[in-house]
Design brief:
By secondary structure, the protein is of the alpha/beta class. It is built from seven helices and six strands, in the order βαβααβααβαββα. It is globular, with a radius of gyration of 16 Å. The structure holds flavin mononucleotide.
Length: about 200
């Protein structure tokens, strides 16, 4: 049973969450887990200007996926930072190249799940994930979120991401806040939960 964790990250927050999701997925017995990123679309000089070039070096070694790669997996967990309450254009562009897979029903019946990062607490934590789900439904994927049995999402003792839609982190408007232990634990839960369900569905 194969699980892909596919992400885009500009400053490293979604990358850190993706690592935790992958760690969790590996805890499901028999899961073969791969971590990949979607291609960058922003010109080098714009990345430099946005202060993202250095941050992106930390995960430059992670392989860049091709749209057809998605067909090789039983479950895919997608990680995207929010852009105006929606997924980022790098992920959108990648998904917009999966028309061939759609035409072949190649992703029908696979498990799909989404996690995110926003700058502010109410800047799109939930909308980014739920609007992403439409694409997964068009592809015939089975959507899995973060059930309330992961009770860390219910805490009011600290500011935290995480909702029934999926794991999330709050990066702060200047990007200074990295994922908290609570958020990383929810990301691990989501990875493990998705892999466990995919295992049951695939029977392997
Ligand atoms: C063009 C643009 C639009 C953004 N829109 C939002 C937004 O609507 N709400 C929000 O909370 N953060 C917004 N952000 C902040 C990003 O979501 C934040 O930088 C990201 O979650 C950090 O994750 P990363 O380090 O993995 O890129 C925006 C950032 C950019 C560059």
């Amino acid at each position: 049973m194969r699980v892909l964790v596919l992400f885009y990250s500009m400053y490293g927050h979604v990358h850190r969450m993706a690592e935790a999701v992958a760690e969790g997925a590996k805890e499901a017995a028999g899961a073969e887990v791969r971590l990949m990123q979607v291609p960058e679309l922003i010109p080098e000089e714009a990345l430099e200007k946005a202060g993202a070039k250095k941050a992106r070096e930390a995960f430059a070694h992670i392989p860049v996926a091709k749209p057809d790669d998605l067909a090789d997996f039983d479950a895919i967990l997608f990680g995207t930072p929010t852009r105006f309450g929606n997924m980022c254009s790098q992920m959108r562009n990648f998904l917009d190249q999966t028309g061939g897979l759609w035409a072949q029903n190649a992703l029908v019946g696979k498990v799909g799940s989404v996690f995110t990062s926003t700058g502010t607490q109410h800047g799109g934590q939930e909308t980014t994930i739920t609007s992403f789900h439409s694409t997964l439904l068009h592809q015939g994927m089975i959507i899995v979120g973060l059930p309330y049995s992961e009770s860390r999402q219910m805490t009011l003792d600290e500011i935290t991401g995480g909702s029934p839609y999926g794991a999330s982190t709050i990066a702060a408007s200047d990007g200074s806040r990295m994922p908290s232990e609570n958020e990383l634990a929810m990301a691990r839960f989501q990875g493990r939960h998705v892999a466990t369900i995919a295992k049951k569905l695939s029977g392997t």
